[in-house]
Amino acid sequence: MNAVTAVLIAFWTMLPAYVPNNAAVLAGGGRPIDGGRTWRDGKRLLGDGKTWRGTLVGTLAGAALALVLNATAPAVSGALGVSLPRFPPAVMLALPFGAMLGDILASFIKRRSGRERGAAFPLLDQLDFVVVALALAAVAAPGWFRDTFTLPVVLVVLVLTPVLHVLTNGVAYLLGLKDEPW
């Protein structure tokens, strides 16, 4: 597999995981998942930034995008000259829900480490959602995962994701959609 093919497949297959957190920001607000509860350290479990509405909207946005990608895969594959994978039904939910769950788990870790909502946590901020999204996709469809996420594709995901994360968060910050640029 050449580098261009690996980049195209990595970006295509991760789109349903890339979109959910952005959709959750746009959905904004709602009831916090932790209901205001605190951990034994006295700090909030997650904080106000992790809401039921954001999690639902983010997951549904990623799943809807996976449906669109499946419908357009033949035409896009033909135009690019690269065979792009289609998403099995279980993966259509696993990737976006995994992305949301990864972000929720990162919030829990950030609270335990004393970081406030929105505080930077390098690498965790950029890769939390990727790790959990990939793990859930691997559980949901092991054969598809093995065939799709080859070593070159995984390496591209691990390099491409932090770059995209910084760029999209910077744009969201400039548009006033986020309080911090990370």
Can you tell me about this structure?
With 182 residues, the protein is mainly α. It has one domain (3-174). The chain is 69% helix and 0% strand. It has six helices and no strands. It has helices at 3-27, 52-80, 89-112, 124-140, 142-148, 151-174. Helix 1 (3-27) runs parallel beside helix 6 (151-174) and helix 4 packs across helix 6 (151-174).
Class inferred from helices and paired strands: mainly alpha
Main beta-sheet strand count, sense and barrel state: none
Residues in helices, as a percent range: 55-70%
The N- to C-terminal Cα distance equals 32 Å
**Share in β-strands:** under 5%
Question: What's a concise summary of this model?
Answer:
The protein is mostly helical and 182 residues long. The chain is built from six helices and no strands.
How do the helices and strands line up, and which of them pair or pack?
Blueprint: H1 3-27, H2 52-80, H3 89-112, H4 124-140, H5 142-148, H6 151-174
